[in-house]
Design a protein that fits this description.
Distance between the termini of chain A: 36 Å
Distance between the termini of chain B: 41 Å
Order of helices and strands of chain B: EEEEEEEEEEE
Oligomer: heterodimer
Largest interface: A-B, 28 and 26 residues
Radius of gyration of chain A: 14 Å
Structural class of chain B: mainly beta
Number of strands of chain A: 11
Helix content of chain B: under 10%
Number of helices of chain B: 0
Structural class of chain A: mainly beta
Strand content of chain A: over 45%
Strand content of chain B: over 45%
Helix content of chain A: under 10%
Radius of gyration of chain B: 14 Å
Number of helices of chain A: 0
Shape of chain A: globular
Shape of chain B: globular
Largest sheet of chain A: 7 strands, mixed
Largest sheet of chain B: 6 strands, mixed
Chain lengths: 116, 112
């Protein structure tokens, strides 16, 4: 089991550019959530995808958008990058089925985004 | 609004010196409380989920407990390899929000 995989691991972008981050969930998981983690802080929820639709969204602007594909993998897109978007972006996968549904979330290694 | 507060922010222990990390929470009905370990520059590693007050779970030198207002992560006879940031998160009952709300973490350093 490969677990949750994210790509790329590191990325450097210029202010105003756009970026796409990718996530493949753990085998058997159908729900993908994205989080932003600034240095020294806990992860902050961006949004969650289930059945190819955004099911829930945190307090992030519309510059942050996403997509989920039929194979449950997901992308996070950020437009018009700001310096403050520099952070570790984490993908978490979970299952929305069964007794313990959505109660164990496994994270990928993250993508370190630096905006200069 | 769901809130999670972790204390202390940082903790330095000598190898073998047992201690506890605290996670205080307010949530509109708790579905689960999660503990994660995070090494620098890496994603959080899942440790435990606790579902109801009085529940306890153990893994090697770690033991997590839960009350109606807080959770503790007890570390018994820690080793240098236990050095990491420990994150606590809550998830409210289904039918409302599904996201995890995290605390800022406790940075643990275990000295040899």
């Amino acid at each position: 089991d490969a677990g949750v995989t994210q790509s790329p691991t590191h990325l450097i972008k210029t202010r105003g550019q756009q970026v796409t981050l990718r996530c493949s969930p753990k085998s058997g998981h159908d729900t993908v959530s994205w989080y932003q983690q600034a240095l020294g802080q806990g992860p902050q929820f961006i949004f969650q995808y289930y059945e190819e639709e955004e099911r829930q969204r945190g307090n992030f602007p519309d510059r942050f958008s996403g997509h989920q594909f039929p194979n449950y993998s997901s992308e996070l897109n950020v437009n018009a990058l700001l310096l403050g978007d520099s952070a570790l972006y984490l993908c978490a996968s979970s299952s929305d089925r069964g007794v313990r549904m959505n109660t164990e979330a496994f994270f990928g290694q993250g993508t370190r985004l630096t905006v200069v | 609004e769901d809130q999670v507060t972790q204390s202390p922010e940082a903790l330095r222990l000598q190898e073998g010196e047992s201690s506890s990390l605290n996670c205080s929470y307010t949530v509109s009905g708790l579905r689960g409380l999660f503990w994660y370990r995070q090494d620098p520059g890496k994603g959080p590693e899942f440790l435990f989920t606790l579902y109801s007050a009085g529940e306890e779970k153990e893994k090697e030198r770690l033991k997590a407990t839960l009350t109606k207002k807080e959770s503790f992560l007890h570390i018994t006879a820690p080793k240098p390899e236990d050095s990491a940031t420990y994150l606590c998160a809550v998830q409210p009952r289904p039918g409302s929000a599904r996201q995890l709300t995290f605390g800022s973490g406790t940075q643990l350093t275990v000295l040899p």
